[in-house]
Amino acid sequence: MRDLHGSVVELVSQMNLPQRDDALLAEAGVTLDRALFPLLVGIQRYGPIGVGELAGRAGRDYTTVSRQVAKLAELGLIERRPSPTDRRVNEAVLSSAGRDVTDAIDAARHRMNTVVFNDWSDHDLLELERLLRRYVDDRHRLAITAKKLDAHRQS
User: Fold this and answer.
1) Is 81 helix (H, G, I), strand (E, B) or coil?
2) Would you say 61 and 28 are in contact if contact means Cβ atoms under 8 Å apart?
3) 3-class SS at 10?
4) pLDDT tens sequence across 74-133
5) d(CA 104, CA 97)
6) Per-residue CA distances from 128 to 115, 117, 138 (Å)
7) By CB atoms within 10 Å of each CB, which of 11, 39, 77, 154 scores lowest?
8) What does DSSP say about strands 49-50 and 78-82: parallel, antiparallel, or unpaired?
9) Are 30 and 101 in contact (CB under 8 A)?
């Protein structure tokens, strides 16, 4: 288990390197403030999404993310709209220009990772994807269960 944890920490560390983001943005031909990049991708992956949830997923404070989401809106990369389930919450969703940017980033990510996985078999790639998905889903279920237990204890 220790080696698995070490590998996950190393992967996250590599994925969070600022130089990696710079290289990905350059490969995509996109000019975007590095601080805005993970938020735009987060909105792509999880949107429509409120600022509070986006801040939690990004590990940043609400006011910082709120300002950065406003900047993404100013750039025309996202649109803000009231949540259909909670009118107090404004959700962020990609605009068509934002979709063009994230499509370019996805294509660049694919090109850059093709080199990494060049010698992997299709079976190995599918197995990695399956196991990573299982790991993420199980961690998510565990977090939800823990949250419910905490709420139950506090009531």
Assistant:
1) strand
2) no
3) helix
4) 999 999 999 888 888 889 999 999 999 999 999 999 999 999 999 999 999 999 999 999
5) 11
6) 16, 11, 15
7) 154
8) unpaired
9) yes
Which residue reads 């565990």 in tokens?
A: 142
Q: Is-contact 58 46, C-beta < 8 A?
A: no
Instruction: For residue 149, give the amino acid letter.
Output: L
DSSP-derived letter for residue 16 is T
Q: Which helix (H) or strand (E) holds 90?
A: strand 90-94
Please give the model's pTM, rounded to 2 decimal places. 0.83
**Both structure tokens of 23:** 């290289």
How many CB atoms lie under 10 A from the CB of residue 37?
Answer: 20
* Nearest alpha carbon to residue 77 among 127, 36, 35, 113: 36
